[in-house]
UniProtKB/TrEMBL annotation:
The keyword Transcription regulation applies. Belongs to the sigma-70 factor family. ECF subfamily. It comes from Conyzicola nivalis. This is RNA polymerase sigma factor 70 region 4 type 2 domain-containing protein. GO terms for molecular function: DNA binding; sigma factor activity. Keywords: Sigma factor, Transcription, Transcription regulation. Coiled coil: none annotated.
Length: 63
């Protein structure tokens, strides 16, 4: 039987295991809905840096 509480706990643990930079990019993009351009402006980094952080973060979450 599907238990969303367990899955959410595992998701939070996986996010917590990421570096702060990767976690921040994913939180801003996936959970807060910011575009890569907006994230770059907020963080003071290039769009390419944001894209790389998102790629690396999602790859790490995928395992």
């Amino acid at each position: 039987m599907f238990n969303p509480t367990i899955n959410l706990n595992h998701s939070q643990e996986a996010l917590d295991a990421l570096s702060p930079e990767l976690r921040q990019a994913i939180n801003l993009s996936y959970f807060s809905g910011f575009t890569t351009e907006q994230i770059a402006g907020l963080l003071g980094v290039t769009i390419e840096d944001v894209e790389e952080r998102l790629r690396a973060g999602f790859a790490a979450l995928a395992g």
